[in-house]
## 1
Amino acid sequence: MKVYFNHDGGVDDLTSLFLLLQMPEVTLLGVGVMGADSYVEPATSATQKIIDRFGKGQSIEVASSDAGTRHPFPTPWRLETFSMTALPLLNEHEPIKTPLRSDSAADHLRRILGETSEPITLLFTGPLTDLATVIRAQPELTNKISRLVWMGGTFLERGNVEEPEADGHAEWNAFWDAEAVKTVWDSNIDIDMVGLESTNNVPLTSAVRRHWAHRRQQVGFDFLGNSYALVPELRHFVTNSTYFLWDVLATCYLTHPEITTTKLVHGDVVTDGPSLGRTILTASGRPIRLVDTVNNERFFDLIDDLASAAN
Ligand code: AGV
Ligand code: CA
């Protein structure tokens, strides 16, 4: 499966990249990095270092996004990416070998789509801004996309944006750039959506942390354990800051949809007012394959298999 990955530099975006590099089914064609749930420079260098360290010698180009927003992620979350790029495990071998392109992530994606003869699978684990930019500039390129797997949105009552001017229905990736969601959903791309419906089933528990700790002699588990040590443990009740394996689930769904159940829905997105970024079900909306449930045990077993493959 030929895959292009666009992420926004959070801890689970970067661990998703690590797992993607261990998947035998996946050929990674390029990575775009947004400074959304991160800052773009450390998120980009962490991306290059993960490819260097865990990419098994493959040469994969990385490009930084120039996208911005009026609705930034909370600063404490964004700072975690500085710690990711500083992990000793990622800084043992210098200098960085993975090439950084001088064009933007959107232009890089345009070039990849323009040149491919075989349609590509897109994995987006942050806002859809760069894809929307490509569609606005060259709508015919959507024919080169076999499908989009997106971590974002939710049709549940409760989203995860707790901000003064938001009513709490939206999910962060959709809230960050609701217009981009609109542009992408108005296109003819096949969309698989991994929203909070399924990701609520994969919280980062202390049992998961302990399991990774026990296997830390293996480098893949050491990397997972250290990465997730950067996000606070909030286990007594779910808050705005409770961590789930959102992006990792979207990544595992790419190659292992059988650990999930899906359903076909029709959806739209709200692009202004207090519900900005809220995704809604409506009969007149565009078709979406929504990941509905996930088998928690099989999900964590799959992560174990992938982490074991790293060396
Ligand atoms: O809304 C989920 C998205 C995912 O792409 N991100 C985190 C994942 O990368 C935003 C987010 C929601 N809650 C968070 C987030 C938290 N507590 N810490 C960091 N990011
Ligand atoms: Ca993300």
## 2
Amino acid sequence: MDFQQVFGKPPETQASAPGRVNLLGEHTDYNDGFVLPTAIPQSTTVELGLSSDGHHHFYSENLDEQVSILDINHSPSGFASYIFGCIEVLQKAGYIIPSLSVYVTSSVPMGSGLSSSAALEVATLRALRQLLNLPIDDVEIAQFAQQAEIHYAGVQCGIMDQMASSLADTEHILFLDTRTLERRVMPLPENAEILVIDSGVPRTLATSGYNQRRAECEEAARSLGVKALRDITDVKVTEKLPEPLRRRARHVVTEDNRVLEVLQGVTSERFGELMNASHASLRDDYEVSLPALDTLVEILQKTEGVFGARLTGAGFGGACVALVKSGQSKDIATHVLEQYKQAGYTGKILVPSLELSDAA
Ligand code: GLA
């Protein structure tokens, strides 16, 4: 099926946006902290046309599902909620959005922590900007996308994923200060490339666990008398908090410090050590890991040619990211997946993208 077959006429415009993988700086963005994501090769494409019957119609090629919005006071669920959310946040900002036919296709893996939702939101907003000549820049696109996610998908997320999808590319790391939105484009560490492997465990508790962590961080910041945990630089300050706030805050403070160390310039070996420390902190202090993720990360960390590895994204399942020696990611992945299988799990290599390179 294509746009023409679903809607009976060709689209008027289209836009794409990539997923992202975060190398360092996890669960720091809603604490006004620092992150280091990069775009992945997989992307989402949104084709748009005007709908002639006064209703929005959204079609997902991946799900082979069509959703029609017959009552705009009733938010849809699933993939349609992100598109509907984008339309609604633009309308609330004063833009007039006509009834639309929307066709979505995506190569971003869903449920792996690689921001398929941000890719859909940013692609939708880019396509709307083109169709309607909206005077919004890439940072505003990320901000509208984040609002759509918070208010229409129910995740109290930070701004990392949407900024990465809107501003990052696959060749660089994007350092972002999530409070000021100051950013710096940095090269990947020397002689290194990125490997992303899905753990095969879906992120079931992600939304509730995520929102709970965010609430704990806000409580910790309030108790310490700061606006956000980003304002604490000395980890000793967190010791006066009761558990579990103490460990939650310790993760955020040490994670921010790890990102800031990278900003000073580090070797690939040191970058890898910081990723390993990040995983331990996410597992022990932030408690967002799972046995499958710990197993995968442990196998990666023990494998020759791997500088460092950690879970990536919100946790509670999904993918792990590793920094590995240039040119070795596929061999390393084969070895790691074999060992992971022996441990009783089935993983999958996501980056480099075998599907996209096969298609090329
Ligand atoms: C999800 C959220 C982001 C960020 C990460 C954890 O991807 O959407 O805003 O908080 O989790 O670092």
